[in-house]
Design goal:
single chain, Peroxisomal Thiolase, Chain A, domain 1, 4-stranded mixed sheet, alpha/beta, binds oxa(dethia)-CoA
């Protein structure tokens, strides 16, 4: 019998109805559609509106739709890994909240925090439980309500982020498809360039932190851009090299959607032609943990069994990485 790999056997996603366009942002901050489009590639993003709604409220429809597509019940899920930077609460884990909301009574779960690389970290860790034989059905969710930590008075960050959630199911595959390799990296010295200043144990919430707008994502865009361009491109090229994959062997590049210019640099470095590069940043912006599953969801009908996919991401932390997988259906 050939080696067991963890394969994606279903994918689904959910984005909220409300669309925040560049034109609406023009009325909120000193910006314009031309600047946003040329500097980022973003035209619009979805925003979760409504009192008391959190990231799990986007995960529920995403996962319910996924289970329906796969034709299984929530009680069949063994493990939920919820990759998010905007959990419903500091604790308990959003994975627990989701399990309760969907009736995943037999699952355990945890949240995974690796900023924009979270979904790749989740895929890599989730696959270990399948490969080891410990579990048969692992749900990896990537979702963020970035609007909850976005300062809509800061034109440098508010134009980037959007809300959304995607999910995949991992199951054992003995046909040589599934997750074949991953390279994951972290560098905590990057904290200074991209972080949330308050709300953690180091600087708990207070009137002062709220007044100083310290509960929003803080980013030094140019510095992050430089690290992202180099590292995301390098790690995608590295995983191809070590698996002896040429650009002809790769069917699809699935890059984290942070900035169209970073995506283009990664595509150039890997030598892939534009028709193989999945891009939907213009409609969703940077949804952090949701960008890659949103891409998989939208392109699912184009994938063929055995297609080689290279996933790549870069995010706060810093964190970055790449996953090589063969599509299983
Ligand atoms: O996903 C996780 C990791 N995050 C990323 O990968 C994001 C990486 N960074 C970026 O994508 C880019 O740095 C940004 C899109 C955030 C910013 O683009 P940039 O080309 O690096 O712009 P900049 O910060 O260097 O600013 C250039 C100019 C500045 O004006 P001056 O000083 O040259 O007069 C900014 O004040 O553009 C100005 N600017 C804007 N102008 C119009 C900044 N934001 C805006 C805006 N509209 N929204």
């Amino acid at each position: 019998m050939s080696k067991i790999h963890a394969a994606i056997t279903a994918v689904n996603a959910y984005v909220p109805d409300y669309i925040l366009t560049n034109q609406e942002l023009e009325t909120m901050v000193d910006t314009n559609d031309e600047w946003i489009t040329t500097r980022t590639g973003i035209k619009e993003r979805h925003i979760l509106k409504g009192e008391g709604l959190g990231t799990s409220d986007m995960a529920v429809p995403a996962v319910k739709g996924l289970l329906e597509k796969r034709g299984i019940g929530a009680d069949e899920i063994d493990l939920i890994i919820f990759c998010t930077t905007t959990p419903d609460r500091v604790f308990p884990a959003t994975a627990n909240i989701l399990a309760d909301k969907i009736g995943a009574k037999n699952a355990w779960g945890y949240d995974l925090q690796a900023a924009c690389s979270g979904f790749l970290f989740g895929l890599a860790t989730g696959s270990q439980f399948i490969e080891s034989g410990k579990h048969k059905k692992v749900l990896v969710v990537g979702g963020d309500k970035m609007s909850s930590i976005t300062n809509y008075e800061d034109r440098a960050t508010c134009i980037i982020f959007g809300d959304g959630c995607g999910a995949v199911l991992l199951e054992p595959n003995d046909e040589g498809n599934g997750i074949m390799d991953s390279i994951l990296k972290s560098d905590g010295s990057g904290v200074q360039y991209l972080h949330q200043k308050a709300g953690g144990s180091m600087r708990p919430a207070s009137h002062e932190t709220v007044d100083a707008r310290e509960h929003y994502a803080y980013q030094e865009g140019q510095a992050v851009f430089k690290f992202a361009v180099t590292n995301m491109a390098d790690v995608a090229a590295e995983i191809m090299e070590r698996n002896h994959l040429s650009s002809d062997d790769v069917s699809w590049l699935v890059p984290h959607q942070a900035n169209k210019r970073i995506i283009d640099a990664t595509a150039n470095r890997t030598g892939l032609s534009a028709d193989k590069v999945i891009i939907n940043i213009e409609r969703y912006g940077n949804t952090t943990n949701a960008t890659i599953p949103l891409c998989l969801w939208e392109w699912e009908s184009k994938f063929k069994k055995g297609d080689v996919l290279i996933l790549a991401a870069f995010g706060g932390g810093f964190t970055w990485g790449s996953v090589y997988l063969r599509w299983a259906y």
